[in-house]
Amino acid sequence: MSTLSQRLPADSEATERLESAAPAVPAPPVLSVRDVRIIDRAGGREIVHGVSFTLTPGKTVGIVGESGSGKTLTCRATLGILPAHFEVGGGSIEIEGRDIGCLTPAEWTALRGATISAVFQDPASYLNPSIPVGRQVAEVIHVKKGVGRREARRQAIELLRAVHLRDPELVFDQYAFELSGGMLQRVLIAAAIAAGPRILIADEATTALDVTVQAEILDLLADLRERTGLALVVVSHDLAVVAQLCDEVLVMRQGEVVEHGPTREVLHHPRHDYTRLLIAEHEQYGLDKFLASEEDA
Ligand SMILES: Nc1ncnc2c1ncn2[C@@H]1O[C@H](COP(=O)(O)OP(=O)(O)O)[C@@H](O)[C@H]1O
Ligand SMILES: [Mg+2]
Q1: 215-265 pLDDT, tens per residue?
Q2: Whose Cα sits closest to atom 9 in ligand 1?
Q3: Ligand (nearest to CA of 73)
């Protein structure tokens, strides 16, 4: 079986970027989040109290924390899609050095998909149930890359193959209800990477999937990262997911970053009681095995 890297279509641009970024000079960050605060105007209160991290090509930052800690709002702020009555009330977010606070709607449209992209939990809700899934991926390619419909279809099928869907020609014409959750998430990942983004945010993207499929999707993301230099933000309430994929991790609790550092360091030497609690909770799910294998390495 060929590897993903041999199969991935239309990523020469990303590869060139990766190669040109390879020399000793550290690559400039593709994403800089500085002390971002998110305000709920309706409730008149600050929900996220200052999140900071930077992301360079090929690297992965994890955000972990209990439900309601502000992980998704942080992602949505980064994507410029905060819910109606929320706003960034402090700090700054830069994508490829551009402050997103200054972007016009048209500039956002150009940026989304082509530079920054995302996959969320519950992939079915992001697909139109009455249009075959492949056509929806082809539509993204047609719009974002400006190629003709026939070529978009060809590239969509290649992308479906690249995200390890068997029989991509068949899947292309299927409807969302005909596919499993894991297959749907692969379709969404295909759509998310269709225009060759530099940043992919995966917000609880594997949460609804069973453990085996979850592991396959995480492998797929790691593969994409290695092949294209994609920078990943991986959000999960599950520390094991973050441990598997991330170079560094932020631990959030009640809108606050309580801990931030290299994943190994945070997991081996947690400083905050809440991180220790998370680690203890996750030991039963195999994080202890991950830590053991890290020790061996
Ligand atoms: N659309 C929304 N309307 C009202 N409150 C929201 C909305 N989205 C998030 N919140 C609130 O903001 C806080 C952080 O939410 P969120 O970022 O979704 O947390 P997480 O992703 O860590 O589970 C929670 O208290 C949540 O109730
Ligand atoms: Mg969330």
Answers
A1: 899 999 999 999 999 999 999 988 888 888 999 999 999 999 999 999 999
A2: 73
A3: 1
